[in-house]
Amino acid sequence: MAKRRVTAIVRIQLPAGKATPAPPVGTALGPHGVQTMEFCRQYNAATEDKAGQVIPVEITIFEDRSFTFILKTPPTPVLLRQAAGVDKGSVTPGRLVAGKVSDSQVADIAQIKMPDLNANDLESAKRQVRGTARSMGIRVEG
């Protein structure tokens, strides 16, 4: 069987189990001729157990208008906001503290994010998560 040629790779962040053909899905996939309803049905089925989270997805679109998709881990800022119990980061990071997370929570987030990070070990992943927390105005204690 001949290989299918890839025409586009589209990355979107969607709420788990709640994708609809309206924007951003329709505007991202429509120009490539992909059936948006079919994608939404498959995405919602794959993410129904992760309700309430934002799940990034990488959609590979082929020349025959078929597609495959890979689910990624939730974005680090979303996980940090949930762990700190805040709605958003600080308006002025470095001056105003929006919330606090413990070192064990940072380790848990790093463990979740490990497959998608370019870190070789857990310590490197924890440093990346700490950097994101610092840029959001969330203090890491411990």
Q: Could you explain the architecture of this structure?
A:
It is a single chain. This protein is an alpha+beta fold. Helices cover 37% and strands 23% of the residues. The chain is built from five helices and five strands. The strands form two sheets. It has a three-stranded antiparallel β-sheet. It has a two-stranded parallel ribbon with strand order 4-5. Helix 3 runs antiparallel to helix 4 and helix 4 packs across helix 5. The longest helix is centred in the C-terminal third of the chain and has 15 residues. The chain is elongated, with a radius of gyration of 18 Å. The mean pLDDT is 85.
Mean pLDDT: 85
Determine the number of helices (DSSP H or I, runs of at least 4 residues).
5
Q: In which range does the helix fraction lie?
A: 25-40%
What is the spatial order of strands in the main beta sheet? 1-2-3
Oligomeric state, counting identical vs distinct chains: single chain
Sheet of most strands: 3 strands, antiparallel
* Helix-strand makeup class: alpha+beta
Q: What share of residues are in beta strands? A: 15-25%
Low-confidence stretches: none
Task: Name the helix and strand elements from N-terminus to C-terminus, one letter apiece.
Answer: EHHEEHEHHE
Amino- and carboxy-terminal Cα gap = 56 Å
The counted number of beta strands is 5
Rg from alpha-carbon coordinates:
18 Å
Shape field: elongated
